[in-house]
Amino acid sequence: MDSDVLRLDASFIDYAILASYFAVVLGIGVLARRQVSSSIDFFLSGRSLPAWVTGLAFVSANLGAIEIMGMSANGAQYGMPTMHYFWIGAVPAMLFLAVVMMPFYYGSKVRSVPEFMLRRFGPAAHLVNAVSFALAQVLIAGVNLYLLGTIVNVLLGWPLWLSLIVAAAIVLVYTTLGGLSAAIYNEVLQFFVIVAALLPLTLAGLHKVGGWEGLKEKVAASPGGAEQLSAWPGNELSGFSNNFLSVVGIIFGLGFVLSFGYWTTNFVEVQRAMASKSMSAARRTPVIGAFPKLFIPFIVVIPGMIAAVSVQEMIQYKGDGSGNVTYNDALLLLMRDLLPNGLLGLAITGLLAAFMAGMAANISAFNTVFSYDIWQTYVVKDRPDGYYLKVGRWVTIIATVAAIFTALIASGYSNLMDYLQQLFSFFNAPLFATFILGMFWKRMTPTAGWVGLVVGTSSAVFVFILSETEVISLQGQGASFLAAGVAFVADIVVSVLVTMVTAPKPETELRGLVYSLTPKADLSENRTGDEAVWYRSTPMLVGVAAVLTVALNIIFF
């Protein structure tokens, strides 16, 4: 994006709103620092937060570049099939995490997903998982940082490299000061700021194009046509011309492998639930997050669709690929055209809040996994707790600097969702295969754990190379869906074969780590006091969320 083409004409009031927000963010970091006296406070908030806080933080941690710019870019490029990332590719997995996975995480008192892998499969699988996860977090943090820098660039006209450094410094200050508590409380604040910013933009955009009916008419007449108004079969999104293969690709590749791999094993999300004050609160965390997740697409996908038919530069780019903009610019262009001063400042603040939420989530997860699962386990063992707290703060600085360089990789993609889905197919799909097989099959061996991860990741990278060299040709995000499916199947097959010729762990070491060997009492919520009221029942909340998910898929079929 060229800042000479896209500049947001902000006024004094817009900058005042922005400055006030940053003052509050840094203030939260300073206040949270007073609560940090140990590493468990820094990395897991002392396991003391209520479910509504962790629930909003759970969804807000994901409400970064993926959700805001990535999904609006997807909306501009593909239309309504983008809804699959929410109603097929998120909520079902969030509910599964609450019902099945969270009791294992919280009940075993592990501090990270790699630590769970250590106890189930041993050091080799643990190290492979920890290193791959840490790498993924720095790469994804780069996406959020790139978009942060982009906003600074279009506001002030600064070069991208300077914008990246300034944006990184802001996130670094409050994450280093207050650890996970600072990140979580800021994520709750950022959730409300984001909604307050994007809702007026959506309403103003719908008014401009003549309401919902007017939008449908304009989308039907635009490149891509009326297919963009139906979520299914989503051929352009999946890259498959055959309707049946497209549906299978979306349900298996996105809805099962990528979605369950992300939401159930991604420590960025799980870390928020593990900061809850009880098992019941931990299980409710992803369910509470599922309710706003169902409706967020209406304020991120719809603006992208509006931009594609109402902003001249986007109409030209979608028509013939010309111009100095990309799909990633859809939301910024719509803000430029529609929002008056004041609302523009709020919208800019909302975007910055989203990108800081995403980046802070990645960095806080990275520092936990690196400090506990790599440094403490394999490099420097048996030091006082204060030593690892100090390491965590230094690692936060190092990861933030590294994200500046990975942001430059993200800058090469016209639609950031293409890049992110590639990363998820590399890292999340094989981890989910290993995790789910090890959780439900007690015979699976430690050797199978790490070999399956390596083969699964390698197979996803191989599919990516075939796609990049055009040996296989899939448009949209079909190559990522295929890579995820191949990684999952390869991991399962190799894990089963290796298990047949290697020795398993004794059953006595697998309590709390394998479903069939864990007493039901260890997995129960045991709700008492305020948590015993009917509206805090996890099964009831899961049922309501599931019904709403099915209803939305039917309405927008």
Automatic annotation (TrEMBL):
The lineage of its organism: Bacteria, Bacillati, Actinomycetota, Actinomycetes, Kineosporiales. Its main location: membrane. The keyword Cell membrane does not apply. It is a multi-pass membrane protein. Belongs to the sodium:solute symporter (SSF) (TC 2.A.21) family. GO terms for cellular component: plasma membrane. Keywords: Membrane, Transmembrane, Transmembrane helix. InterPro entries: Na/Glc_symporter_sf, Na/solute_symporter, Na/solute_symporter_CS. This is Sodium:solute symporter family protein. It is found in: Membrane. Gene3D superfamilies: Sodium/glucose cotransporter (1.20.1730.10). GO terms for molecular function: D-glucose:sodium symporter activity. The chain crosses the membrane at residues 12-32, 52-73, 85-106, 127-148, 160-181, 188-206, 244-265, 286-309, 343-370, 391-413, 419-441, 448-467, 479-501, 533-556.
